[in-house]
Write a structure and sequence with these properties.
This protein has strands spanning about 10-15, 25, 35, 45, 65-70, 75-80, 90-95, 105, 115-120, 130-135. It has about 140 residues and is mainly beta. The chain has a domain at about 10-70. Strands 1-3-2-4-5 form a 5-stranded mixed β-barrel. A 5-stranded antiparallel β-sheet has the order 6-10-9-7-8, with no helix packed on it. Strand 2 (about 25) and strand 3 form a beta hairpin.
Length: about 140
């Protein structure tokens, strides 16, 4: 069959409004669509572009986005939950249980989802933003 996409970018329509890059995405409700991933979802990848309208300044749903599939060993910037726990260098990360598409420190108590990456930098508690991470799925 061979390699179908040698650029490691896929085009999908997002069901959600994406105000930034680095959100974790899963399969949407119909073919060709993606949505913000929740804990336990199959991951399609992360968005490389936002859906902010240059006219209104607001993020819009049902727009085309470039999606980067997640490959073990890849270094990416991931969105961090707004009410995140403190994340230290090397900390395991999982999808946040309260904020779809964002990660938090997987401590086994507050956050128990599957590890998808490890932090390559520290992030203060309750700071949100992004974290540089290396993808290493369980």
């Amino acid at each position: 069959m061979g390699l179908v996409n040698d650029k490691f970018r896929l085009a999908f329509e997002t069901e959600d409004a994406l105000d930034d890059t680095g959100y974790l995405l899963t399969f949407g409700s119909s073919a060709g669509k993606v949505a913000l991933a929740s804990s336990g979802d199959v991951l399609v990848g992360i968005n490389l572009v936002d859906t902010v309208s240059p006219f209104t300044g607001s993020a819009e749903a049902n727009k085309m986005v470039a999606v980067l599939p997640l490959v073990d060993g890849m270094v990416v910037e991931l969105q961090v939950a707004d009410a995140n726990q403190a994340i230290s260098y090397g900390a395991p990360l999982c999808i946040d249980s309260a904020e779809a598409g964002k990660v938090d420190y997987r401590d086994g108590t507050n956050e128990t989802g599957a590890v998808i990456a490890y932090a390559l930098e520290a992030v203060d508690a309750n700071s949100g933003g992004t974290v540089k991470a290396i993808i290493m799925k369980e």
